[in-house]
Amino acid sequence: MKSTTRITLMVVIAAIVSFSFIKSEEHIAEMEAVKKVVYDSYINGAFNELNAEAMEKGFHKDFSIFTPKGEEISKYPIADWIAGVKKKKANGYDQNDKKNIWDHNFANIDITGKAAQVKVELKNQGNHVYTDYLSLLKFDSGWKIVAKVYHKHEK
Asked: HEC string of 55-124?
């Protein structure tokens, strides 16, 4: 192989490796941004801290929880959920009570462009209670949770 061919090949390989590194850094940054929204707005906002302000920041205004009811779909909109969180907190919610502490595990995070899907496992007092699937979209203002479907585990 001629030395110019070797040099060209080395430059091409270096460019591919550099591009892959940049893409993976961008992907890691997006994964961290998605995790932060889910952690702040969902895990702490909706569960551990009952922080309605954090929920309003991280959930899209058109968000709903979708639940099957026979062959129909029941929708629980974010406005109703936030109202319930505010009411529960106003009625003496004790953040240190063990029954109000939810452990979580990010089982999977999948991002393609401006769409993401997060699988979160929620445990309460050592029991696996929910497996949640959160859909997110990236808007000009950042990532927002737009929908949830879930499975409630039997004890």
From this structure: HHHHEEEEEEEEEEECCEEEEEEHHHHHHHHHHHHHCCCCCCCHHHCEEEEEEEEEEECCEEEEEEEEEE
